[in-house]
Design brief:
By secondary structure, this protein is an alpha/beta fold. 43% of the residues lie in helices and 13% in strands. It has a four-stranded parallel sheet. Strand 6, helix 8 and strand 7 form a beta-alpha-beta unit.
Length: 279
């Protein structure tokens, strides 16, 4: 075993360093500030700094400056190298020892063109952002997509401002209700082609992989349900999120799905998630 691989395995052998690495993998391709990493994992800032330094020394993550903030992201080439070195080089590619070689993503079509694709939007409460995303996609492109939404910790009901705004825009709200994520994680759940998180909490939370490897991306937006101020100011927060979601969903629905491979589709949905939050 070469020194580089042993150093990377040693860095990942510590349970808390592994938690940091797994969080950054979940948020890939986003780069996160150390403060957010510490908050999500309930770690002290000084301890988080030590873990980040160890992962950087092993080459598993990298650091970049965005304005006055230092942010951290996974080094995907190094992460892939750990898997390759462990299984493909250490066992000399023996088929009885190595895992099956995955089909290249460029050879995998996202979905047959003759069926509707299933899209799930996930947030914390499933009362505002993900509900609006579900409603907008169904309204804008319901003939080509089945739209669903759920919450990691769903509220008892959809926020009244979300329902009010959707109705004002001519969107049918009869199917909208807050639902737990577990509704879409059992054998009865539809196979999803795309899963989008629209809040940081849902994106940061660790959960089992989705069956079928749907294309996923983080389209994080501020929670309008947490807006302070007058009723007019709160409605404005909902209108801003509605506008941002509408722009992203229209860009998503316009993608050439039948002629685009999964790698390029992933790149496109990641780019859509980086469009300005407030429009």
């Amino acid at each position: 075993m070469d020194v580089e691989l042993s150093d990377r395995l040693a860095a990942l052998s510590h349970p808390h360093r592994m938690r940091v690495f797994r969080l950054l993998m979940r948020r890939c391709p986003d780069a996160l500030p150390a403060g957010e990493i510490a908050r999500v994992l309930n770690l002290k800032p000084s301890t988080t700094s030590v873990y980040l330094s160890a992962l950087m020394q092993a080459g598993l993550i990298s650091q970049e400056r965005q304005g006055t903030s230092l942010r951290y992201e996974v080094n995907l080439e190094a992460a892939r190298g750990v898997i390759s070195d462990l299984f493909l080089e250490c066992c000399n590619g023996r088929p009885d020892l190595c895992p099956p070689v995955p089909v290249p993503c460029t050879d995998m079509a996202p979905a047959p063109a003759d069926r509707k694709m299933n899209v799930l939007f996930v947030c914390t409460g499933n009362s505002a952002r993900s509900i609006l995303a579900e409603a907008i996609l169904r309204h804008e492109a319901g003939k080509r997509f089945n739209a669903y939404s759920a919450g990691a910790h769903p509220r008892e009901a959809v926020h009244p401002f979300a329902l009010e705004l959707a109705k004002e825009c001519g969107i049918d709200t009869s199917l909208l209700r807050s639902k737990p994520l577990s509704d879409y994680q059992g054998p009865q759940a539809p196979p999803f082609d795309f899963v989008f998180t629209v809040c940081d909490f849902a994106a940061n939370e660790e959960r089992s992989p989705w069956p079928g490897q749907p294309i996923s991306a983080h389209w994080g937006l501020p929670d309008p349900a947490q807006a302070n101020g007058t009723p007019a100011e709160k409605r404005l927060a909902f209108q801003q999120v509605f506008g941002a979601l509408s722009n992203r969903i229209r860009a998503f629905a316009a993608l050439p799905f039948s002629t685009t491979n999964r790698v390029d589709l992933q790149r496109h949905v990641d780019e859509i998630g980086r469009t300005p939050e407030i429009v």
